[in-house]
Design goal:
Porin, three-stranded antiparallel beta sheet, globular, 408 residues, 16-stranded antiparallel β-barrel
Length: 408
């Protein structure tokens, strides 16, 4: 997974290679304001109003340090509820996040371009993070695997398969061994940074990447928290023709927090219970039409289970440019979990609720820097009323790209 600002960082690296001894600093900004009407706001407190508003500011400071070296960061401030997944909590709160910050070095080997990065990086798994910026995402929501909280925690161990009966989030967090305090459920792939190193390669129609991090894409951790359990992620792609690319990616490594080590079965460590993921992504564009999609499968090994939680998910997205100023877009996504079985013979048909999402949106470029989007989403969650999860949203996105200073 790589954010749109990673692409910008790589682009910056390519620019450095073309401009010898070029030093400078730039801070592209994306400012977004949004409002939504949804009964998600009433899921915890029925007396809440079904409407709310929020905003998001994302800055991408980039420092050029000559023909090879560069530094890059992405920081975010938002007033929630802003994202659709924020809407299950009606209270307005500010959140700030350092999404990425790394030092990079670019060079060429023959016809190949290589970029090496170290710091806090977006995961190299998946493709949606390239479009996580509001100006790049033609819709208002994000695909399910990047925002769905699962009934699994890196700091809690379920008693058995019976804890997953019903597939609900709260049911799945019935635990026998846990650290103190409330724990959030894992998201299959984080949209936030992981500490580590990465090397990217591109030549002709091929591209590839390898990443080693201190946390799993399902559980980002600081280096001091992750112990000695490094994670690896691999990815690559092939451009069949201009506008048509097929990619693959995968990861595997421990995801349980180190604090659980004393609670694991005798003779085991978090290394014996990895999380893994494999994915395929496709991008296609021709004329005024474009499409993208992903298929992913995840597994989370946990103690005392002969069949651990497995999850399959995917989405497809289509965009049509009607005029230079107007477009229409739609996305269909799904998430389905598999059966779980514990060593005592207990089982559950699924460990989390199956989901399906349907989203449509239209966009209008008011000018070169401002995009107005209007969208509607149907989210079906097994066992929940469909009216609760529908969202009508509007979003105004403004991009600033002129904040830059050249040193020489």
């Amino acid at each position: 997974m790589r954010f749109v600002w990673v692409a910008a960082g790589a682009l910056c690296a390519g620019t450095l290679a073309a401009q010898d001894a070029n030093y400078g600093f730039s801070v592209p900004l994306t400012l977004s304001g949004g409002a939504m009407y949804t009964h998600r706001l009433q899921s915890g407190e029925p007396e809440n109003l079904p409407g709310t508003a929020g905003f998001r500011v994302t800055a991408y400071p980039t420092l050029k340090l000559g023909s090879h070296w560069f530094a890059y960061a992405a920081v975010q401030l938002r007033l929630a509820p802003y994202f659709y997944y924020d809407a299950y909590e009606a209270d307005h709160e500010f959140y700030s996040d350092v999404l990425q910050v790394f030092l990079g070095y670019s060079f060429r080997v023959g016809d190949a371009s290589v970029v090496v990065k170290a710091g806090r990086l977006s995961s190299a798994f998946g493709s949606f993070p390239l479009r996580y910026d509001d100006a790049e995402n033609p819709l208002l929501d994000q695909p399910l695997p990047y925002v769905t909280q699962l009934p699994l925690s890196a700091s809690q161990l379920p008693c058995g398969a019976g804890g997953f009966a019903g597939g609900g989030y709260r049911a799945g967090l019935s635990t026998c061994a846990a650290t103190a305090g409330q724990q959030d459920g894992l998201t299959p792939v984080t949209l936030y940074g992981l500490y580590g190193v990465e090397a990217d390669y591109s030549a002709h129609r091929l591209d590839g990447r390898i990443q080693v991090t201190s946390g799993s894409p399902a559980n980002a951790q600081k280096v001091a928290q992750a112990g000695q359990y490094a994670q690896w992620t691999l990815g690559g792609g092939y451009t069949i023709r201009q506008g048509f690319r097929v990619g693959v990616s995968g990861f595997r490594g421990p995801y349980l927090n180190e604090v659980l080590a004393p609670l694991l079965p005798l003779g085991t460590t978090p290394r014996d219970f990895p999380a893994s993921g494999v994915g395929v992504d496709v991008q296609w564009a021709r004329g005024r039409w474009s499409a993208t999609g992903e298929w992913q499968r995840f597994g989370f090994d946990i103690p005392n289970f002969t069949r651990s939680p497995r999850l399959t998910t995917g989405y497809g997205e289509v965009k049509s440019v009607l005029t230079p100023r107007f477009y229409l877009a739609g996305r269909v996504g799904w998430l389905k979990s598999g059966e779980v079985t514990d060593k005592w013979g207990g089982s559950a048909d699924e460990f989390t609720s199956d989901m399906a999402s349907y989203e449509i949106a239209g966009g209008c470029w008011l000018n070169r820097h401002q995009l107005l989007k209007l969208g509607y989403e149907w989210l079906h969650v097994e066992g929940q009323a469909s009216t609760q999860n529908k969202v009508l949203g509007i979003q105004l996105v403004t991009s600033f790209n002129k904040l830059s200073w050249a040193f020489r």
